């Protein structure tokens, strides 16, 4: 039978909680950087579109929406004008693409919150229950195995989000 000491479980579970929190924070920095860069690009694209719009009432509305960083509403309010130049159409397409990409990163990061914080919380609770788990012969290695697999799964999810930020 496998013999696992209490200290092994204490150290493993506390390391999992700490490493999970650190990795989440590190990933959060990447996501924040990615979203700030996307916002800057969307600002530039939306400003270029506003400069090219010829109807004055649309231009004022569009500039107000851009100032409020309400790019999605700006796109919905002002569809690509018929007969618009290829540069305006390209800017509209790039703005839509940037909005979509930012939404994907936000959603992926938000979906990561529950598994990460449940892993951290479960690790902390398991640390408190090490003495009780020691009395159950199979629970000790089982808890350790589940914790390591859960941590690997969360890291896998984090890598996927990181890859979407880098692309």
Walk me through this protein's architecture.
- The protein is mainly alpha-helical and 167 residues long.
- The chain has one domain.
- The protein has helices at residues 6-52, 56-67, 71-77, 86-128, 130-135, 139-166.
- Helix 1 packs antiparallel against helix 4 (86-128), helix 2 (56-67) runs antiparallel to helix 3 and helix 4 (86-128) runs antiparallel to helix 6 (139-166).
- The longest helix has 47 residues, at 6-52.
- It is rod-shaped, with a radius of gyration of 24 Å.
- The mean pLDDT is 83.
Number of helices: 6
Kindly state the number of beta strands. Answer: 0
Intertermini distance: 47 Å
Query: Into how many domains do the coordinates divide?
Result: 1
> What class, by secondary structure content?
mainly alpha
Mean pLDDT: 83
CA gyration radius, whole angstroms = 24 Å
User: What is the N-to-C succession of helices and strands?
Assistant: HHHHHH
Query: What percent of the residues sit in helical stretches (DSSP H or I)?
Result: over 70%
Share in β-strands: under 5%
Unreliable stretches (pLDDT < 50, length at least 5) are none
Major β-sheet, in short? none
* Shape estimate: rod-shaped
